[in-house]
């Protein structure tokens, strides 16, 4: 196949990208998106601060633009994200525990309800664990006020809100086997043992020279899959350029393809010129929408 999406589809996978609604008026952006990708993730438009900046007043306009575009092109949509410490409006942090629980569940119900039936996979909880060797939870209003059970509560609420959506836990620095990924692994294992709903784990996969594609990436994806969940590469970008970057991209794709439950790959943007990673050129298309060596490596690996 001659496009990323079609090549991934031949392998029973999707190939997606993060999309920003404010670029949907740019013809080269849209034509690259529509030609190459068959899944989208709204880059910011479904986050709590975007959809519920004021309590119980929901604004879905920007996210709806992305979902409508995706649906008109037959693309899947990943929902990102429901419960996260970042891009969280300040009012959430002021609530006492009982009220926070109500607000969290209402947020999940309203957002998932609005998109019911339209979302392939939801990142229900994002980045709940700390970096480093502790394997501990990250401080957040949810963790600090509701305790460890907030993740389970969010997933149970999410299952009821849209039973057809795959429910994912998503995080970064969990791509290889390490203390943080072990902590996520233990969470998933516990959920599966107790029947708490969880269908997938997202591995953000933001790589650079200090944090390269891990040698045990495939093994790590596989051990999660062996727990009985799908795995997805959800926010792939790799800083660098040229052959080194291309080789890393190819290796990341090969790791997913080697794991039968690795159901899809999403890169975190269409073009280098709009990447959130200001320091570099981490994506598959350059600022003029030319295919990079990294693009060719991905297409070849698929
Ligand atoms: C980033 C977006 O790309 C930026 O535009 C925004 O300013 C900050 O968030 N982990 C995630 C994503 O789960 O939502 C983040 O996206 C990147 C890190």
From TrEMBL:
| Coiled-coil boundaries | none
Domain GH10 residues, every copy: 1-301
Q: Which reaction does it catalyse?
A: Endohydrolysis of (1->4)-beta-D-xylosidic linkages in xylans
List keywords of the entry alphabetically. Carbohydrate metabolism, Glycosidase, Hydrolase, Polysaccharide degradation, Signal, Xylan degradation
EC number(s) reported in the record: 3.2.1.8
Which domain of life does this protein belong to?
A: Bacteria
Residues at the catalytic site: 235 (nucleophile)
Q: Does the keyword Iron-sulfur apply?
A: no
Q: Which family does it belong to?
A: Belongs to the glycosyl hydrolase 10 (cellulase F) family.
What is the protein name stated in its UniProt record? Beta-xylanase
């Amino acid at each position: 196949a001659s496009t990323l999406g079609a090549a991934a589809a031949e392998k029973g996978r999707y190939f997606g990208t993060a999309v920003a609604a404010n670029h949907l008026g740019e013809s080269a952006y849209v034509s690259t998106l529509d030609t190459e990708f068959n899944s989208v993730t709204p880059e910011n438009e479904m986050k709590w601060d975007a959809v519920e900046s004021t309590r119980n007043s929901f604004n879905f306009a920007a996210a709806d633009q992305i979902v409508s575009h995706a649906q008109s092109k037959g693309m899947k949509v990943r929902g990102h994200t429901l419960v996260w410490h970042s891009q969280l409006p300040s009012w959430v942090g002021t609530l006492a525990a009982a009220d926070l629980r109500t607000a969290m569940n209402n947020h999940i119900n309203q957002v998932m309800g609005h998109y019911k039936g339209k979302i392939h996979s939801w990142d229900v909880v994002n980045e709940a664990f700390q970096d480093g060797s502790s394997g501990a939870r990250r401080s957040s209003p949810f963790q600090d006020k509701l305790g460890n059970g907030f993740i389970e509560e969010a997933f149970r609420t999410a299952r009821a809100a849209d039973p057809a959506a795959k429910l994912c836990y998503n995080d970064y620095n969990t791509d290889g086997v390490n203390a943080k990924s072990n902590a996520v692994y233990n969470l998933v294992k516990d959920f599966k043992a107790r029947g708490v709903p969880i269908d997938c784990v997202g591995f953000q996969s933001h790589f650079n020279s200090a944090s390269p594609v891990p040698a045990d990436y495939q093994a790590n994806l596989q051990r999660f899959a062996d727990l009985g969940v799908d795995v997805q590469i959800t926010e792939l970008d790799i800083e660098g350029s040229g052959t080194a970057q291309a080789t890393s991209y190819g290796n990341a794709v090969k790791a997913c393809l080697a794991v039968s439950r690795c159901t899809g790959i999403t890169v975190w943007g269409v073009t280098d010129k709009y990447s959130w990673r200001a320091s570099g050129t981490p994506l598959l298309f350059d600022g003029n929408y030319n295919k990079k060596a990294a693009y060719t490596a991905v297409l070849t690996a698929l």
